[in-house]
Amino acid sequence: MNKKGLFITFEGVEGSGKTTQINLLSSYFKEQGKDVTVTLEPGGSSLGKTLRKMLLNKNQVFHNLKTELLLFYADRCEHISEIIEPALQKNHVVICDRYIDSSYAYQAGGRQLKKLWINNLNSMIEKTPDLTFLLDLPVEIGLKRAEKRANLDRFEKESLQFHNRVRNGFLEISKTNSRIKIINANNKHPQEISIEIQQYLKELDI
Ligand code: TYD
Questions:
Q1: 177 C-alpha to center of ligand 1: Å?
Q2: What are phi and psi of 3, to 5 degrees?
Q3: Which of these CATH numbers, 3.40.50.300, 3.30.2350.10, 3.40.120.10, 3.40.47.10, describes 6-203?
Q4: Which residues of the chain have pLDDT under 70?
């Protein structure tokens, strides 16, 4: 099968500004006349909407943390087949809010499950992003933003230590993955960050 489309993911701790950057990047590509599909995990597929409610509901109890991990991968499998692959086949730029690196950061980093299990699950899904932007900032700053936005969900209400393990998990995985570009998202205007992202894309001839 010929390679089609472009698959970009955004990652980061809570309140890192992914949604704003995704909207700005989507407009940038549309101005170039490209078709863009903006989507998210968990919850990008039809089944995923139900899974998202379960995964984010702060009253949801999992007696085994592997269940949580597997639900994220069930969400991912549906999302790839229903939304991501079809859009790429139509030559769209697919921009996804969170993907496999969130599983490394949250389930391996935050929850301290084995990275090997996530490697194995990834070998099953066989879909790697072309490019990933990691919006990095101190977790305290991101969490303050998240608190202002709405009631905290099951992940947002975790401890500061949990969120620091998540941030370190993201930074750790970036070291061995050249597709991940770390963007310093601390103390910067959203437009400034977006221009940095666009310049990086130009450097890559995208
Ligand atoms: P969401 O409200 O989309 O968070 P944000 O607005 O910060 O992107 O909630 C998604 C939550 O799910 C977020 O806290 C991270 C978590 N998550 C995982 O733990 N593992 C995963 O594989 C994914 C995709 C998300």
A1: 21
A2: -75, 130
A3: 3.40.50.300
A4: 1-2
